[in-house]
């Protein structure tokens, strides 16, 4: 995008130049939102852009002569920078000259000494007028006030430049007129034309009739711009046919040579050697000076020659890198080709010394693309990943083509901003949790953890339970999870006998937009505790009575009386059962298998054995601590099943010999016997 405008100098403030939005094809309504700005190397802001309409107007009148001095073409360069997206347009303003300067002469008055003996046709150099305007607005012709002795003619130097000369057309007579006052007028070609005058005082001399003559009308020289002070530029030489002082020549710079050049160079008055005097701080590649040779006659005569000095550039300026615009941080999902920065790279040296190559390291996902003249765009060339690299230090290296080349470096710090491109990640897809039954409410069971390499809200993970059911009940009635740290708690006590295992899913979700999530499956295995005593299935004791088993009166040894059958709802060791005789009315008559629960006789039955017996069987599991249950079995020795079963509430053992009743009877019998014996003893005594 480039547009060129032409504007006349001294155009008044507020005058319309054009419409930037229309000329560049930009929507004027977006100028303000896209933060437009005009960039220029000029110290003044000559133009304004209306943010609403895009109208381009004059902000300050332009003085072309002040801005561009003696340049034939005068341009102002502006860059229009727009953001979102970043765009650069170049605007070039050609400043047109108007005839606003009159020709002027360096001095207010010029003096020429003319020997009276000179013949008609003698010529004298007149001063050149200066006009800051260009083209037809500059000096076009000269005129001389009417005089019978003098005329004006224009001469051309070897380089094509013209200058006025005063020509003697009639011999002078100092005794009749010692001085002639002439008016030299310079006119330009403007509309209307402007002019400038200078008095030329001609003094008639009657000696020294030869002026010095240079060997060349134009001298040319070439020097390096970094030449030290004292470097010889050129040596001019003029000759004077006169003898003595009238033929001695002194060299000097003409008054029309600018003061800057006269300070920059020195000319030896006697040898004509022109040398460097200080630093050659000029931007123009060609310098023009006029050298005057004047003799030492009483009325010194002079002539001039032009000296053209070409300044040969040396590579003494390094490239200058300017960051015009920089977008940082940039999102990690920026597409390849996204513009990050706009760079201006300039080298003040002309020619090859001012040409610049620019590069950045190859191992970066960025590249430099040339934009407009002297501008480069830094764009992404690959995919970015903040989780791998969150910032880049991009070193821009600019090298000119001089010999030796000069290199300049500048480092840009570009940060990468995070986007939510990574879901939470668990260390495994599943996890196994073992929980003992009868756990307390709110007991901590397990903690899941997921990581998210994103930062900020994009990396903040929260945890939830995915909806599901366990044994027909909602998952929330069994478990809860902390959304902050993934800790899982029990909402109820688990019962191994009802539920041995189940699984559920925990979802980890980040706080990005849109949110990303992942899930882990948790398998819960409930461990058994010894919380159930063995349940005796057989024999049963209806209504709390004793179970009765009938055994033949003369049963043989190892006769199966009954088999105690029990079960335990616990698992593994907690359900391993063993059988033990806790009590037996006759320990020698029955035995119990500890593993099968079979109650058998240890010997054959005898007729002297009691008819009924009672045994207490203990069924015990192997839990820690163990739990047990008991059953009481009544055993009746009978060959047939009686219609009415006897009462087994007593012990079923023969009564002891010395119970309370027997003792009472024995004591009573003893007392009677004692009384009877005493009576017999008394009778015996009586008889004797």
TrEMBL record:
Keywords: Calcium, Cell adhesion, Cell membrane, Glycoprotein, Membrane, Repeat, Signal, Transmembrane, Transmembrane helix. Coiled coil: none annotated. Residues 6-105, 106-214, 215-321, 322-426, 427-536, 561-648 form the Cadherin domain. The chain crosses the membrane at residues 663-686. It is found in: Cell membrane. It is a single-pass type I membrane protein. Pfam families: Cadherin (PF00028), Cadherin_2 (PF08266). GO terms for cellular component: plasma membrane. One of its GO terms (molecular function) is calcium ion binding. It comes from the Eukaryota. CDD domains: Cadherin_repeat. InterPro entries: Cadherin-like_dom (IPR002126), Cadherin-like_sf (IPR015919), Cadherin_CS (IPR020894), Cadherin_N (IPR013164), Protocadherin/Cadherin-CA (IPR050174). The keyword Glycoprotein applies. Its main location: membrane. One of its GO terms (biological process) is homophilic cell adhesion via plasma membrane adhesion molecules. Potential calcium-dependent cell-adhesion protein. May be involved in the establishment and maintenance of specific neuronal connections in the brain. This is PCDC1 protein. It comes from Todus mexicanus (Puerto Rican tody).
């Amino acid at each position: 995008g480039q547009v060129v405008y032409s504007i006349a100098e001294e155009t008044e403030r507020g005058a319309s130049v054009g419409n930037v939005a229309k000329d560049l094809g930009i929507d004027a309504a977006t100028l303000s939102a896209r933060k437009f700005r005009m960039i220029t190397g000029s110290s003044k802001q000559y133009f304004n852009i209306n943010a609403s309409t895009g109208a381009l107007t004059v902000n300050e009148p332009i003085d072309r002569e002040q801005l561009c001095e003696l340049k034939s073409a005068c341009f102002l360069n502006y860059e229009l920078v727009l953001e979102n997206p970043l765009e650069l347009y170049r605007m070039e303003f050609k400043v047109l000259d108007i005839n606003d300067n009159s020709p002027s002469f360096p001095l207010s008055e010029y003096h020429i000494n003319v020997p009276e003996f000179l013949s008609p046709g003698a010529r004298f150099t007149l001063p050149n007028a200066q006009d800051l305007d260009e083209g037809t607005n500059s000096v076009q012709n000269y005129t001389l006030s009417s005089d019978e002795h003098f005329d004006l003619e224009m001469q051309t130097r070897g380089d094509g430049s013209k200058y006025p000369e005063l020509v003697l057309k009639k011999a002078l007579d100092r005794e009749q007129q010692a001085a002639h006052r002439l008016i030299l007028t310079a006119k330009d070609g403007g509309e209307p034309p402007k002019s400038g005058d200078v008095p030329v005082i001609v003094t008639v001399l009657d000696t020294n009739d030869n002026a010095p003559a240079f060997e060349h009308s134009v001298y040319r020289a070439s020097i390096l711009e970094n030449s030290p002070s004292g470097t010889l530029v050129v040596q001019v030489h003029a000759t004077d046919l006169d003898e003595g002082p009238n033929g001695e020549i002194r060299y000097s710079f003409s008054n029309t040579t600018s003061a800057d050049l006269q300070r920059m160079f020195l000319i030896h008055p006697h040898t004509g050697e022109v040398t460097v005097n200080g630093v050659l701080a000029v931007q123009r590649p060609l310098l023009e000076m006029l050298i005057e040779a004047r003799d030492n006659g009483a009325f010194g005569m002079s002539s001039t020659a032009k000296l053209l000095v070409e300044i040969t550039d040396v590579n003494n300026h390094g490239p200058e890198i300017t960051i015009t615009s920089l977008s940082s941080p940039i999102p990690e999902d920026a597409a390849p080709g996204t513009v990050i920065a706009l760079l201006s790279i300039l080298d003040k040296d002309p020619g090859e010394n001012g040409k610049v190559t620019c590069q950045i390291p190859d191992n970066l996902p960025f590249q430099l693309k040339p934009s407009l003249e002297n501008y480069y765009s830094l764009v992404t060339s690959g995919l970015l990943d903040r989780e791998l690299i969150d910032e880049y230090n991009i070193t821009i290296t600019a090298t000119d083509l001089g010999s030796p080349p000069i290199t300049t470096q500048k480092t840009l710090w570009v940060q990468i901003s995070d986007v939510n491109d990574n879901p939470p990640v668990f260390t495994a897809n599943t996890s196994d949790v073992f929980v003992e039954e009868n756990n307390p409410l709110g007991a901590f069971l397990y903690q899941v953890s997921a990581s998210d390499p994103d930062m900020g809200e994009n990396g903040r993970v929260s945890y939830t339970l995915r909806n599901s059911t366990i044994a027909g009940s909602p998952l929330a009635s069994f478990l809860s999870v902390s959304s902050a740290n993934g800790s899982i708690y029990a909402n109820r006590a688990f019962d191994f006998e009802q539920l041995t295992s189940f699984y559920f899913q925990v979802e980890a979700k980040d706080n990005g937009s849109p949110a990303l999530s992942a899930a882990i499956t948790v398998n819960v295995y409930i461990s058994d505790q010894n919380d159930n005593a063995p349940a005796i299935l057989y024999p049963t004791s209806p209504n709390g009575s004793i179970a009765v088993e009938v055994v033949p009166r003369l049963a043989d040894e190892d006769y199966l009386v009954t088999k105690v059958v029990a079960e335990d709802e616990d698992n593994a060791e907690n359900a391993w059962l063993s059988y033990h005789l806790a009590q037996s009315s006759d320990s020698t008559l029955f035995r119990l298998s500890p593993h099968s629960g079979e109650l058998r006789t240890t010997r054959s039955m005898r007729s002297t054995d009691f008819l009924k017996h009672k045994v207490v069987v203990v069924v015990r599991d192997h839990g820690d601590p163990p739990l047990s249950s008991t059953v009481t079995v009544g055993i009746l020795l009978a060959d047939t099943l009686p219609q009415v079963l006897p009462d087994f509430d007593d012990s079923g053992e023969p009564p002891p010999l010395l119970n309370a009743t027997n003792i009472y009877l024995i004591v009573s019998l003893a007392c009677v016997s004692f009384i009877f014996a005493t009576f017999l003893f008394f009778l015996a005594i009586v008889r004797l």
